[in-house]
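DUF2383 domain-containing protein
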Amino acid sequence: MQNNNERTVDVLQELNQFVNDRIEGYKHAAKVTKDPAHQSYYKDLVNQSTKFSNEINSTISSFGGSPQGSTTAKGKIFRGWMDVKSAVTGSDEESVIESNIRGEEWAQKAYNDALDHKAELPQNVVQIVEKQKQASLATCERLRQMKESVD
């Protein structure tokens, strides 16, 4: 049976893999977009996600765990597929934005999965997860607005 600290570390390490996916996804988007405003926004999201990852890793360390620097296998496969797709079809703005929306939807699932353990997590950890989830929701909404403006 896991103690609460181990459970907290496990939940946060898994969540941080998705945050690291988010970093890599927005780095890629910033590289392939042709729109300077979108590129700037994606770079801002890389910075935001890096702060999120640092916050989670700091919390993991405070509970005796090892920081998480890896990404998910699913994220690696998705980024590889997007590279192949853009090589074949080109990187139009709409497809870049759609990929980012899918990434944020995956992030939302990861935040929800972490919050499924809310009763087992310390309140400060729940607050971190909820704050980051709200930022991800806001990002998803902004991406949807961006997509509408390029249609």
